[in-house]
C-alpha cells in the first residue's frame, strides 16, 4: 500500500457564501475554461487551480500514473473560516466535509477524507469531529493556530483530547501566516512563514508541557516535514539545557518528544529527507505530497522511492505502513 496522507481538494462549486451570510470576502470558484479555475476571495484572485481539485477521475489517473494506492484529501485551509462567526464557520465545515465524502464516494475506495471543524468554538468542533467520524472521515485537518491561540491553548488541548477519544487522526496544517506585510513578493509567506508556523506549533506543545498531558493514543501529524523543526531541534535542545526559562514547563529535553507525533515527507530534497528520518525515526514519517498544487510533489512519491539515502525498510514504512497506523487503518489493511 502506497498512501498519501496530505492532499487537498476544492469542490467544483459551492453555495454563494457571501449571499447566504450577507458579509463580503468569502471564497468562491471562478471557472475560466474547461478544467481550469481561479479560487477567489471576494473580488481578489487567491489561487489558480485545475480539475484535479474536484474531478475524481483526473485524481485517480494521476494516482495511477504515480503508483498511489490511497490518497487522503483535506480542504484547503482558506476554507477554514476560523475568523467568522461560529454559526457560519460550522455551516462551512459541514458543507465542505459532506463535499469531501461525496468526492471520495466516486473513487472506488481509493480516496478518504479528513474533516474540518469550526476551531474557534471547542464544543462545536468536538461535535463536528464526532459527526464526521460517524460519517466516514478518518480524522480532521486543523490550522496550526486560531487567532493568537497556539496549540497549547487549553481549549485546543481539550479538542485534541476529544480527537484521541474518537480515534480521529489529526493533521496540523499552517495557515494565516505570520509576517505577511514583510513578504509581499516571491511567495515568501509560503517559503518562510509556513515552515516557521509549523515549528511554532510543535514547540508550543513541547515546551509548554502539553505532551505530558495529552494521551499517547492521540495520532498527530504536522505537514510539510514539520516545517523547520527537524533542522533547528539541536538549537532548541541547547536552549533547554542552558536557559531555565526554556525548560520552565518542559520536564524533558525537547528531542525526547519526537515519538509523540508524525511529520509528512514533503521536503523536496534527499538530504532534508534523510535528516528528517534521522531526527524523527523512520516510523514517524509518512508520505505527503501536497497534491495537486504547484508547491506539492509533482511526481507523487518520487522523492522517497528514488533516493538512495533510505533503505528498503525505511521506504516501506514511509510509503505506507506508517500511514496505516497514523490513520487507524490496521483492521482494513492488516497485512500491509
UniProtKB/TrEMBL annotation:
Domain Amidohydrolase-related positions: 3-329
Protein origin, superkingdom: Bacteria
Keywords for the protein's UniProt record, in alphabetical order: Decarboxylase, Lyase, Metal-binding, Zinc
Chain ranges passing through the membrane: none
Pfam families: Amidohydro_2
Pathway membership, UniProt: Secondary metabolite metabolism; quinolate metabolism
GO BP of this protein: secondary metabolic process
GO molecular function, a single term: metal ion binding
EC number: 4.1.1.45
One cellular component term from this protein's GO annotations in UniProt: cytosol
The protein's enzyme class: lyase
Subunit details: Monomer.
Stated family: Belongs to the metallo-dependent hydrolases superfamily. ACMSD family.
Name of the protein this chain belongs to: 2-amino-3-carboxymuconate-6-semialdehyde decarboxylase
Origin species: Acetobacter garciniae
Amino acid at each position: 500500500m502506497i498512501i498519501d496522507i496530505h492532499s487537498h481538494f476544492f469542490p467544483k462549486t459551492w453555495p454563494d457564501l457571501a449571499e447566504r451570510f450577507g458579509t463580503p470576502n468569502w471564497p468562491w470558484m471562478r471557472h475560466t475554461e474547461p478544467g481550469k479555475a481561479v479560487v477567489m476571495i471576494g473580488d481578489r484572485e487567491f489561487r489558480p487551480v485545475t480539475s484535479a481539485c474536484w474531478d475524481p477521475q483526473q485524481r485517480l489517473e494521476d494516482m495511477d500514473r504515480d503508483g498511489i494506492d490511497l490518497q487522503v484529501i483535506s480542504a484547503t485551509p482558506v476554507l477554514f473560516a476560523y475568523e467568522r462567526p461560529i454559526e457560519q464557520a460550522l455551516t462551512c465545515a459541514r458543507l465542505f466535509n459532506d463535499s469531501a465524502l461525496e468526492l471520495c464516494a466516486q473513487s472506488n475506495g481509493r480516496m478518504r477524507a479528513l474533516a474540518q471543524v469550526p476551531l474557534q468554538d471547542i464544543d462545536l468542533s468536538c461535535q463536528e469531529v464526532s459527526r464526521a467520524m460517524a460519517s466516514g472521515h478518518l480524522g480532521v485537518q486543523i490550522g496550526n493556530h486560531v487567532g493568537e491561540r497556539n496549540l497549547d491553548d487549553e481549549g485546543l488541548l481539550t479538542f485534541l483530547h476529544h480527537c484521541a477519544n474518537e480515534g480521529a487522526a489529526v493533521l496540523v496544517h499552517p495557515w494565516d501566516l505570520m509576517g505577511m506585510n514583510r513578504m509581499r513578493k516571491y511567495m515568501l509567506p509560503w517559503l518562510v512563514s509556513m515552515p516557521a508556523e509549523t515549528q511554532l506549533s510543535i514547540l508550543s506543545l513541547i515546551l509548554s508541557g502539553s505532551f505530558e498531558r495529552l494521551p499517547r493514543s492521540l495520532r498527530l501529524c504536522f505537514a510539510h516535514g514539520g516545517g523547520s523543526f527537524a533542522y533547528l531541534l539541536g538549537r532548541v535542545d541547547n536552549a533547554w539545557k542552558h536557559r531555565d526559562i526554556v525548560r520552565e514547563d518542559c520536564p524533558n529535553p525537547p528531542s525526547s518528544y519526537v515519538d509523540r507525533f508524525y511529520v509528512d515527507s514533503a521536503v523536496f530534497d534527499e538530504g532534508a529527507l534523510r535528516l528528517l528520518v534521522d531526527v524523527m525515526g523512520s516510523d514517524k514519517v509518512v508520505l505527503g505530497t501536497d497534491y495537486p498544487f504547484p508547491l506539492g510533489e509533482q511526481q507523487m512519491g518520487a522523492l522517497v522511492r528514488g533516493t538512495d539515502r533510505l533503505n528498503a525498510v525505511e521506504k516501506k514504512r514511509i510509503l505506507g505502513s506508517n500511514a496505516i497506523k497514523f490513520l487507524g487503518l490496521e483492521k482494513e489493511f492488516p497485512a500491509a
